[in-house]
Design brief:
It contains 20 helices and 21 strands. The chain is an alpha/beta fold. It has two domains: 292 residues, P-loop containing nucleotide triphosphate hydrolases (Rossmann fold); 250 residues, Rossmann fold. Bound molecules: glutamine. Glutamine binds next to helix 15 and strand 17.
Length: 552
């Protein structure tokens, strides 16, 4: 008897799936490899989407600590997801939804809820078929309406948590036409001490895959350099794939060059042939080459931007790094993000920002390093150093202004100092009741009205913008008049929520309650980031350096 999901599925739709697993160790960049392949398929005219499977028990990434797990990425529908979805959105230039991140927690929650409501009619509820059916259903639903769906399984083959997902993929492939599915396995090919590329880890990891009934169609070897032809042959022989199905994925300096490398290796062409898509693909001279042009263009200078945060981990602020890069591509400069630990500034300014061209204070939660962030804001405001504050960085710009310009010495956010006599940042009155019920975070895309004739209006070129949010606290409406009279301008708002702030007499001092970094893409850089770089490049910078000096 076909399984429940198979009954509802029409295989004649001919949707194509690329399943991506990883071997040997995690963190090999299989997501980037997969996203790069997707980019090339999109360049060839296909509508590509992606699903990221995270075998952890968390229902979503919302509760996960960025220090351990990297940034929590926010989708337009408010889904709090793994940062890999950000890579897919950026590489494929698509907007995904919460259903595109499948976790063990989500799947079990659904199945257990259905069991409780009696949906299984007295049957024993089991991993096979109930959990696996739910996994298959989620993949099919996410793929609906697209030509190709890339499904990346997080973790490494052999992890206990990943087993139900791999079993679901095995069944999925069994239910589908052979040329609709491609299993790609990304592994590590390390060098031995005497400089040999070693294939044994790959062999073992493929053996592991085969022991659960999965035979890879394509193997991608992550290595410092390209795989030697003999090494490819050896892998092919021992892992039972054609030699043409073994690809190198050497280290590159910039992840945006991975699509170019994948193309050079011919991976995209091979994928199209195996999936029977080659004839539908645009001819090579008609393919979209905007990505290539963008990432290979010449840059004419360098800009150093301090990122004043509490996590010394690039992944914790990955979307901000990427946004700076996109803005750099648009402005034709390289941007070096320079991480400054907020705690270093906590005891007062001591030259930490002397050598940078601009400052970004990112989002965050909790009190660690908060005084350092406020100090960075003060320094940037008083010294005409271009500043961009994101979410918490917006809130701390308001707190700093209240303290040092309005003279409200103990002004603070009620999140951090509940006893402050000036809760400049607070829950809105209507949120207090909700607070008792939990789930108060304002998430996802919301529209902001922008006042004409402001910096915000200039950078967005519009009287509104729709950006993604992830916060609980707001500017306290009771203080808005005083703040504005003293010179702080709220140039973007949604009803009584303040969304964008700026200082009219400063070269660039902008804060956003939202997170513009989640919508920034190569070729469609985020306006507040572009504004920051343009202000820096705009003639003499605030510190009296000429454009040439800044660029030098
Ligand atoms: N902690 C702040 C709030 O909840 C800011 C959140 C953030 O920066 N993402 O409002």
């Amino acid at each position: 008897m076909p399984t429940e999901s198979a009954q509802n599925y029409d295989p004649t739709k001919g949707r194509k799936f690329i399943f991506v697993t990883g071997g040997v160790m995690s963190g090999l960049g299989k997501g980037i490899t997969a996203a790069s392949t997707g980019r090339l398929l999109a360049n060839a005219g296909f509508d590509v989407t992606a699903v990221k499977i995270d075998p952890y028990l968390n229902v979503d990434a919302g509760t996960m600590n960025p220090y351990q797990h990297g940034e929590v990425y926010v989708l337009k529908d408010g889904g709090e997801v793994d940062l890999d979805l950000g890579n897919y959105e950026r590489f494929l230039d698509i907007d995904m939804t919460f259903d595109h991140n499948v976790t063990t927690g989500k799947v079990y929650q659904e199945v257990i809820e259905r069991e409780r409501s009696g949906d299984y009619l007295g049957k024993t509820v089991q991993i096979i078929p109930h959990i696996t059916d739910d996994i298959k259903r989620r993949i099919r639903e996410a793929a609906e309406g697209h030509d190709v769906c890339i499904v990346e399984v997080g973790g490494t083959v052999g992890d206990i948590e990943g087993m139900p997902f791999l079993e679901a993929l095995r069944q999925f492939a069994h239910e589908q036409d052979e040329d609709d599915i491609l299993f790609t396995h990304v592994t590590l090919v390390p060098y031995s001490k005497n400089g040999e590329q070693k294939t044994k880890p790959t062999q073992h990891s493929v053996k592991e895959l085969r022991s659960i009934g999965l035979q890879p169609d394509i193997l991608v070897g992550r290595c410092e350099d390209k795989l030697h032809p003999d090494v490819k042959e050896k892998i092919a022989l021992f892992c039972d794939v054609p030699t043409e199905a073994v690809f190198s994925n050497p280290d590159v300096e910039d992840i945006y060059h991975v699509p170019l490398m994948v193309e050079e290796e011919g991976l995209d062409q091979y994928v199209m042939e195996r999936l029977d898509l080659a004839e539908e693909a645009l001819p090579e001279d008609e393919r979209d080459n905007r990505w290539r042009n963008l990432v290979t263009q010449e840059t004419t200078g360098e800009i150093d931007i301090a990122l004043v945060g509490k996590y010394g981990l690039e992944d914790a602020y990955i979307s901000i790094h990427e946004s700076l890069k996109h803005a750099g591509l648009e402005a034709g400069v390289d941007v070096n993000p320079i991480w400054v630990h907020s705690e270093e500034l906590a005891d007062g300014y001591d030259g930490e920002l002397d050598d940078v061209d601009g400052v970004v204070v990112p989002g965050g939660f909790g009190s660690r390093g908060i005084e350092g962030k406020i100090e960075a804001v003060r320094y940037a405001r008083e010294n005409d150093l271009p500043y961009l504050g994101l979410c918490l960085g917006f809130q701390m710009a308001v707190v700093e202004f209240a303290r040092n310009v309005l003279g409200l010495d103990d002004a603070h956010s009620a999140e951090i100092e509940p006893e402050t006599s000036h809760p400049i940042i607070d829950l809105l009155p209507e949120q207090y009741d909700l607070e008792d019920m939990g789930g108060t975070m304002r998430l996802g895309a919301h529209e902001t009205d922008i006042d004409e004739g402001t910096v915000a209006h200039e950078i967005y070129g519009d009287t509104s913008c729709t950006e993604r949010h992830r916060h609980r606290y707001e500017v306290n409406p009771e203080y808005i008049d005083d703040l504005e009279e003293a010179g702080l301008r709220f140039s973007g708002h949604t009803n009584n929520r303040m969304e964008i702030l700026e200082l009219p007499d400063h070269p660039y001092f902008v804060g956003t309650q939202f997170h513009p970094e989640f919508r920034s893409r190569p070729g469609r850089a985020s306006p507040p980031f572009v504004g920051l770089l343009e202000a820096i490049l705009d003639g003499d910078d605030a510190r009296g350096r000429t454009e040439e000096e800044v660029e030098a």
